[in-house]
Design a protein that fits this description.
alpha+beta; 4 helices; 203 residues; eight-stranded antiparallel beta barrel; single chain; disordered N terminus; 9 strands
Length: 203
């Protein structure tokens, strides 16, 4: 089965499982907030690692209530860590809470999703440089990341600035890493997965 088919099946499974498993009694207070302009984000995000940069920051939207959250992020890896030039990443991250479970004042959610990232620096290319024969390399500036993890949400009592926050941890991999792990013996699954930790603050 091709990676494209696996990816399609995964997304379909996540979407329909999410709809079936949602706790209808759970509604975050942020969804009850006064209607605002469509372009104003629902929350801001900061993430450490996870194939989106050493540190990535951005804003997110609850596209489908408790089903899909999408974010636009900027990630950065300094030259001292990349051992190349500074790396700049622009990413669109999509997260699906599998289900929600209320535990006291906290809400626990297993999560999964995918990210599309574009490297905007000089470390990769969208079109093959002239020095390479046609078809010698695939474009290296765009990558897809698959991830899964756990998220904990807490509503704030004092909501003057932020209404609540998520703290999450994830494990993920880039599609090219996964391809090499599946197609070669030199790369193992232990080599291709990395972890991330992040926080969302809701308006």
């Amino acid at each position: 089965m091709s990676l494209k088919n696996i990816f399609t099946i995964l997304l379909t499974f996540l979407f329909f499982t999410n709809i079936a498993a949602q706790d209808s009694t759970y509604v975050k207070s942020k969804t009850k907030a006064k209607e605002k302009a469509w372009y104003i984000p629902d929350y801001v995000k900061m993430q450490f690692a996870g194939n989106l940069g050493l540190l990535s920051v951005g804003a997110g939207y609850e596209v489908i209530n408790n089903v899909l959250y999408s974010e636009l992020l900027y990630g950065f890896v300094p030259k001292s860590i990349s051992n190349a030039e500074n790396i700049h990443l622009i990413s669109i991250k999509n997260t699906f809470p599998i289900f929600t479970k209320q535990i006291g004042d906290f809400t626990l959610s297993p999560i999964a999703g995918f990210t599309t990232s574009v490297e905007t620096g000089n470390n990769s290319f969208l079109t093959l440089p002239d020095k390479y024969p046609k078809g010698y390399y695939f474009p290296s500036a765009i990558h897809f990341t698959l991830f899964a993890g756990t998220q904990v949400h807490k509503e704030f009592k004092n909501q003057k600035i932020f209404k609540g926050a998520d703290l999450y941890v994830e494990v993920g991999t880039v599609e090219t890493y996964l391809f090499f792990a599946l197609s070669t013996k030199e790369v193992t699954f232990n080599d291709v997965f990395s972890s991330a930790i992040g926080i969302n603050f809701y308006f």
